[in-house]
């Protein structure tokens, strides 16, 4: 540890500066947690009371394993809480969104402006025939219009399915089809490191054989404007301009779906995780306010894209429901230089910064001189999400970015959980390597295969024992896959992560217990990468594993059996990489490809990835009794 900062190392833990607690929403974690245990429903009702409802609930929770309903018969609209409420409470001219483009161009949008744009686009969607319950796919770069489109859907009760703009056309196609999206909202292009990346051409490919799609709404950012040809293409700004300026929020039942968001599973195609209006709103509002300690006066910068759950919950719905200012940017962390993010923190007075370990590790490599060029005193809270924050990265983040003053929240959660589940509340002792303890409202534990808690220091499976408001309600069109989450270990929700608990109840996440890869904080199914590879004409069979990578968490290695008539070559490797890139997008590209004659399989034909992985890492492959000859 550096001596320059007031860092107190209490055994394994860091005690944050006591001044942090002077104004924190949670004053004492243990009190908050015990209050919840005494009256679990009262805990959630108190939070829900802080939000606006058109009609209050009859019951806080109805639980019939594995199906939960929260705030039954309550009526609300999340956009009312994110927009109208602030507009009518004197915050009309408060800044809602600061956007910075890849080229440094800025846009500042007040709550009033956002409210207006959302209503106009909502009316635009209505004019295209979108009604409550229809699915709208949003495939856009990180521009304010992406958020406007999401909120406009929520305004009228349409279910948005945001697909990250970095995904390729096959990934987009399967998500459009699975959700049976009626509309796709997109843009001509994204801009990355000064280069134009076409999105619309990928949409054109993705909608082939997707007859559910009736219209494609295109935001034209480039000049000269891209021509819109067919009858089904409409201009984003045109539908904004034509319409009425007012759009009353649709009265939504607490349990009506708000959105679908796809996440990778161990097998099969991506799962459409379904979140609802009431419970998700309460969960993201609660954790933004009480965990990230967000105040209206904060400028929150969550560096994710709204195309991931992190963006849904902690760019859009959580911070806007609290009434904070959000910063979003299309800029990459190291372009034009590795100081760009720190310069933005200084320039826009960012107070709450939330990023991923992979980004922190990248900055560590670039050297401390980059952040040291800027005044980062504005920072109050630092967060991390997506994969374990290793102690070295924790220490660097704490010392170099937080100057030993800012609490670091390593937040463990999932697309399926909707909100933070495990972290270290502001002002509590932090233990590097440990995410922390369950959020008040959550009962989490580390158990063995039979659901029995394992003693401290022993690894086990991470489970959640009781339902919570922002839990997913189903997997779209595949409720069986939903039920599996609640039936793998006893009656608990199984997260699919391995973890270990210490004597104080702090939980360290060890990684996935299945074949899901976490590449740069993004969850990627080995099955998805394999099927992209197998769709190439040269590939007979493919198996994909994650290899520990100092920067990305996992890096992808693919083992390939070629079809007869094809020869292994470096050129073919490049072809395969390109093929995966076009199909799934750049994040799913294998860093290594090895051509093999055979793959280890069980007698029933299932590829044993764990054997490949053990061989690759020089480890013991474990029980091989099911391995075929
Ligand atoms: C998986 C969920 C939640 C938003 C980002 C990813 C891993 C997430 C942490 C953390 C260790 C983490 C888990 C989890 N993960 N946060 N703080 N420490 N691991 O969402 O794509 O649904 O992935 O990400 O393995 O199960 P997701």
Automatic annotation (TrEMBL):
Per UniProt, the keywords (alphabetical) are: ATP-binding, Ligase, Nucleotide-binding
Enzyme class name: ligase
Q: Where is the AMP-dependent synthetase/ligase domain?
A: 89-473
Ranges of residues in domain AMP-binding enzyme C-terminal = 528-606
One of the entry's Gene Ontology molecular-function terms is: 3-hydroxypropionyl-CoA synthetase activity
One GO term describing the cellular component: cytosol
Q: Name one GO biological process term.
A: acetyl-CoA biosynthetic process from acetate
Q: What is its EC number?
A: 6.2.1.1
**PROSITE patterns in the record:** AMP_BINDING
Acetyl-coenzyme A synthetase N-terminal domain mapped to chain residues = 29-82
Q: Does the keyword ATP-binding apply?
A: yes
NCBIfam families recorded for this chain? Ac_CoA_lig_AcsA, PRK00174.1
Q: What is this protein called?
A: Acetate--CoA ligase
* The species this protein was found in: Methanolobus chelungpuianus
């Amino acid at each position: 540890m550096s001596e320059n900062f007031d860092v107190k190392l209490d055994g394994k833990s860091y005690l944050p500066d006591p001044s942090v607690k002077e104004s924190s929403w949670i004053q004492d974690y243990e009190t908050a947690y015990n209050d919840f245990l005494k009256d679990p429903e009262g805990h959630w009702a108190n939070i829900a009371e802080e939000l606006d409802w058109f009609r209050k609930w009859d019951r806080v929770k109805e639980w019939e394993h594995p199906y939960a309903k929260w705030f039954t018969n309550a009526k609300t609209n999340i956009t009312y809480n994110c927009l109208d409420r602030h507009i009518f409470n004197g915050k009309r001219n408060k800044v809602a969104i600061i956007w910075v483009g890849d080229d440094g161009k800025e846009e500042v949008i007040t709550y009033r402006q956002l409210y207006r744009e959302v209503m106009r686009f909502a009316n635009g969607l209505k004019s295209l025939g979108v009604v409550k319950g229809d699915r709208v796919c949003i495939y856009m770069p990180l521009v304010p219009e992406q958020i406007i489109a999401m909120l406009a859907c929520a305004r009228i009760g349409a279910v948005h399915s945001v697909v990250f703009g970095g995904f390729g056309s096959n990934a987009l196609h399967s998500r459009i089809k699975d959700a049976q999206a009626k509309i796709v909202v997109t843009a001509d292009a994204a801009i990355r490191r000064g280069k134009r990346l076409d999105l619309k051409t990928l949409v054109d490919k993705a909608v082939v054989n997707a007859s559910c799609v009736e219209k494609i709404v295109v935001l034209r950012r480039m000049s000269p404007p891209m021509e819109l040809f067919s009858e089904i293409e409409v201009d984003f700004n045109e539908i904004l301009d034509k319409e009425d300026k007012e759009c009353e929020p649709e009265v939504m039942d607490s349990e009506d779906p708000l959105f679908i968001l796809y996440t990778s599973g161990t097998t099969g195609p991506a799962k459409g995780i379904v979140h609802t209006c009431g419970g998700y709103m309460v969960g993201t509002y609660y954790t933004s306010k009480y965990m990230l300690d967000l105040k209206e006066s904060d400028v929150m910068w969550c560096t994710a894209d709204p195309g991931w759950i992190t963006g849904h919950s902690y760019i859009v719905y959580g911070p806007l429901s609290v009434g904070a200012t959000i910063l979003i940017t299309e800029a990459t962390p190291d372009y034009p230089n590795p100081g760009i993010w720190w310069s933005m923190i200084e320039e826009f007075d960012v107070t709450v910064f939330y990023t991923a370990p992979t980004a922190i590790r990248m900055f560590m490599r670039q050297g401390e001189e980059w952040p040291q060029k800027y005044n980062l005193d504005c920072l109050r809270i630092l967060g991390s999400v997506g994969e374990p924050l290793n102690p070295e990265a924790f220490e660097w983040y704490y010392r170099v970015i937080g100057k030993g003053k800012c609490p670091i929240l390593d937040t463990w959660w999932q697309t399926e959980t909707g909100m933070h589940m495990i972290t270290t509340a502001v002002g509590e002792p932090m233990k590097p390597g440990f995410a922390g303890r369950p959020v008040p409202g959550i009962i989490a534990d580390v158990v063995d295969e039979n659901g029995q808690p394992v003693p401290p220091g022993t690894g086990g499976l991470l489970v959640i024992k009781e339902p919570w408001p922002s839990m997913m309600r189903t997997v779209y069109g595949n409720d069986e896959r939903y039920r599996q989450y609640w039936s793998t270990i006893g009656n608990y929700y199984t997260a699919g992560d391995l973890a270990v608990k210490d004597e104080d109840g702090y939980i360290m996440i060890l990684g996935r217990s299945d074949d899901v890869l976490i590449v740069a904080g993004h969850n990627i199914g080995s099955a998805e990468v394999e099927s992209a590879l197998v769709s190439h004409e040269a590939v007979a069979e493919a198996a994909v594993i994650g290899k520990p990578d100092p920067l990305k968490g996992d890096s992808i290695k693919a083992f390939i059996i070629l079809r007869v008539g094809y020869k292994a070559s470096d050129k073919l490797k490049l072809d395969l990489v390109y093929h995966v890139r076009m199909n799934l997008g750049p994040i799913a590209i294998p860093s290594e490809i090895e051509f093999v004659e055979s793959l280890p399989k069980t007698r029933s034909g299932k590829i044993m990835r764990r054997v490949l992985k053990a061989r690759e890492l020089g480890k013991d492959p474990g029980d091989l009794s099911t391995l075929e000859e």
